[in-house]
Specification:
The complex is a heterodimer of chains A (about 110) and B (about 110). Chain A has about 110 residues and is mainly β. Helix content of chain A is about 0%, strand content about 50%. The termini of chain A are far apart. Chain B is mostly beta strands and about 110 residues long. Chain B has no helices and eleven strands. Classes of the chains: A mainly beta (about 110), B mainly beta (about 110).
Chain lengths: ~110, ~110
């Protein structure tokens, strides 16, 4: 199972873009990369996923390195409501979703 | 739609007691998961199920048992609770297929073992 490594915490200013990094150097060619976020006192919620190409949705963008050993979740314009713990995860043919330890994102007004 | 519902939301157990955590989903999802969340450890997979009547071990299965007798329910059992099992437990469910995306999580069960 591919392990993921993330910074423990990050800060960003409100209304500025945020780049959250994730390292997954042991990822295999068939492992997908996922991102979830967890707001205070709630369960995690899905944000975005990808395999090789960069991905965009209404919540965020996912940039995947060419060698797939790292990825970056991009929040284009942070708001105070984006303050949460962001988890990078991988899934494989065993149908398991394996999470990392997460990055606590603080948004400064 | 209730989504994923976990019962109970809070529980205090004495060491050696047993209990069952119930997870119910109303989205007709094939896959269900149990995770535990501890400070500084992120989410760790305990057991999971890819369909009714099937279960499989995750990253930290010791001390836990699970059952998936009905498609909509996934039960997590602690036969003899230990203080190390104090944690917040999350259940999740998702559609089948590759990749497993968009898993829906419950609100969590906070368990304290004294």
């Amino acid at each position: 199972d591919a392990k993921t490594t993330q910074p423990n915490s990050m800060e960003s200013n409100e209304e500025e873009p945020v780049h959250l990094p994730c390292n997954h150097s042991t990822i295999s060619g068939t492992d997908y990369i996922h991102w979830y976020r967890q707001l205070p006192s709630q369960g995690p919620e899905y944000v975005i996923h990808g395999l090789t190409s960069n991905v965009n949705n209404r919540m965020a963008s996912l940039a995947i390195a060419e060698d797939r050993k790292s990825s970056t979740l991009i929040l284009h314009r942070a708001t105070l409501r984006d303050a949460a713990v962001y988890y990078c995860a991988t899934s494989n043919r065993d149908d398991k979703i394996i999470f990392g330890k997460g990055t606590r994102l603080h948004i400064l007004p | 739609n209730a989504g994923v519902t976990q019962t109970p939301k809070f529980r205090v157990l004495k060491t050696g007691q047993s209990m069952t955590l119930l997870c119910a989903q109303d989205m007709n999802h094939e896959y269900m998961y149990w995770y535990r969340q501890d400070p500084g450890m992120g989410l760790r997979l305990i057991h999971y199920s890819v369909g009714e009547g099937t279960t499989a071990k995750g990253e930290v299965p010791d001390g836990y048992n699970v059952s998936r007798l009905k498609k909509q329910n996934f039960l997590l059992g602690l036969e003899s609770a230990a203080p190390s099992q104090t944690s917040v437990y999350f259940c999740a469910s998702s559609y089948s297929g590759t990749p497993i995306i968009g898993a829906f999580f419950g609100q969590g069960t906070r368990l304290t073992v004294v």
